[in-house]
Amino acid sequence: MSRRSGILEFAVLGLLRESPMHGYELRKRLNTSLGVFRAFSYGTLYPCLKTLVANGWLIEESGGAREEALAAPLAGRRAKIVYRLTAEGKEHFEELLSQTGPDAYEDEHFAARFAFFGQTSRDVRMRVLEGRRSRLEERLEKMRASLARTRERLDDYTLELQRHGMESVEREVRWLNELIETERAGRDQRRPDSDGSAQQDSTSGESGGLPRHGDSSRPDPSDDTAT
After folding, report:
1. 90 in the same domain as 8
2. Residue 220 forms part of a structural domain
3. Number of domains present in the structure of the chain
4. Which portions of this protein are annotated as coiled-coil regions (predicted)?
5. 59 and 142: one domain?
6. Is 71 exposed, middle or buried (0-12, 13-18, 19+ CB in 10 A)?
7. Contact, 183 vs 122, CB < 8 A?
8. What's the rounded Cα separation, in Å, for the pair 127 and 113?
9. Does the structure show a pLDDT above 80 at 188?
10. Residues 6+ apart with CB under 8 A from 113
11. Region of poorest pLDDT, from 83-92, 128-137, 193-202
């Protein structure tokens, strides 16, 4: 399996864990919610869905009664196929969520993993965030060393482009530092209520909590230009 197809399968399973969808809905969610998939087509999605069905992780169901009633009067039009996650598919997705290997830190895979942090345990979130930060710090060190060696040979525009790339990586490292500190602060731990019972912090839960402020400079993890 290629890395790209593996990321797509992960994202499809994650979206279908939230609710069953048909192909058009899936493609729309992948495009709008997961920017890493902005430029993929039905020709990529449907082979992925067929593979997931063959593996027993999804099942195909016909559209609801209302859709069938609307489709019936139209010649040649069939009710849409709805894809639903199976118990085996849910178990497989949870296994994928728990993985924190090097692939989780790469640009495209990190964006997909981050999109499902709400379904990921805090210790796994921490390992992925710290791994991503370490990977970017290594990248930043190499960029600085390269710039120091070649600065005198670069024209102004090439030099400015390299500086822009470094600033983008530095910005994401700062963003990751903020996220890591938030996780360490334990915002998702239960706090005692006045009657002694445990109350969930309204700003976060085991599914995660992000800093809430108006920092518009925060990088989009699905934006390859930020990495």
Report:
1. yes
2. no
3. 2
4. 126-167
5. no
6. middle
7. yes
8. 12
9. no
10. 10, 104, 120, 128
11. 193-202
Q: Are residues 93 and 148 in the same domain?
A: no
Q: Copy the structure tokens of residue 58.
A: 């999804």
Mean pLDDT of all residues in 201-222: 49
Contacts of 120 (CB under 8 A, 6+ apart): 97, 113, 128, 207, 208
Residue in the block written with tokens 């910005």: 171
Task: Give CA–CA dist 102/134, Å, rounded.
Answer: 11
Q: Is 227 part of a structural domain of the chain?
A: no
Evaluate whether residue 158 is within a structural domain: yes
User: CA distances (Å), 87 to each of 14, 15, 59, 198, 204, in order?
Assistant: 13, 15, 10, 31, 27
b/e 193-217 (16+ beta carbons within 10 angstroms → b): eeeeeeeeeeebeeebbeeeeeeee
The CATH code of the domain that includes 56 is: 1.10.10.10
Indicate the residue type of 161.
L
pTM of the model: 0.74
- Specify burial of residue 157 (Cβ count, 10 A radius: 0-12, 13-18, 19+): exposed
> CA 15, CA 51: separation in Å to the nearest integer?
16
